[in-house]
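Closing statement on the nicotinamide-adenine-dinucleotide sub-project.
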Amino acid sequence: MVDQAPRVAVVTGGGSGIGLATCKRLRREGFRLGVLDLDPAGASEAAADGLGLGVDVAVASEVSEAFAAVEETLGPVDVLINNAGITGSLEATRLHETPVDEWDRVMGVNVRGAYLCSRVALSSMVPRRSGHIITVASVAGMDPFPARSAYSVSKAAALLLARSIALDYAGDGIRSNAVCPGMAETPMTKWRLDQPDLRAAIETSIPIGRVAQPEEVAEAIALLASGRLAYMTGHGLVVDGGWSLR
Ligand SMILES: NC(=O)c1ccc[n+]([C@@H]2O[C@H](COP(=O)([O-])OP(=O)(O)OC[C@H]3O[C@@H](n4cnc5c(N)ncnc54)[C@H](O)[C@@H]3O)[C@@H](O)[C@H]2O)c1
């Protein structure tokens, strides 16, 4: 049995990189989009005929107001894509070297943000007994990246958030999955990939021999969002060119 085609998706962090590619891909699938991003212009552009809003996903009141506006404008949210995320500044390295504020900032966006958006989305999905939450975690949440403690821990939490929701809401007709990208070429990773030596070292360590384009991660998100994998819940879909095999 295939899910009924969902029509309204909220994409957080949809103004750039993987989120932007996901918005474009989902629009082609006929979704109407609510896009929540710190950058209101980027959000509006990505939403096209949907609704783009300047929102900090780590602020509860902003998230609640944004979901209310999306539901009023576009109707009930069928799919939430928790994509907004940050790696933290260059100071966010090994644990004892990571400033407390920086730790809190990374957790605030990557974990609290996904929690706040999921919480509001679920409160409207539960009475409808329908919905799908897709959280963009990372392979860093499965095996830690070196000297990226806050980011790795936050992505492990994001992955478990997806699995926890899957367990607690399966009986309510709601599914939850995660996508775990390896390295994709986006503004987040540009500073590394723009350095030829660093890029070569990264690409050598990836069995497929190159980093992903954001569209390749968006394709995995769109497959989950399509409802074609209707029996899948609590899964972390790894899209990393074989990186985590090494
Ligand atoms: N690029 C990669 O290699 C890679 C790998 C694994 C996982 N990821 C994850 O994919 C997601 C997207 O990453 P990306 O590479 O496209 O990054 P990006 O920096 O290109 O885009 C992130 C977007 O999130 C928005 N954002 C940041 N903080 C926000 C907040 N508090 N509230 C609302 N919006 C906020 C930014 O404005 C930006 O538009 C992140 O969760 C990231 O951790 C990326």
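DSSP finds eight helices and seven strands in the chain. With this model delivered, the sub-project is considered complete and its resources will be redirected to Aim 3.
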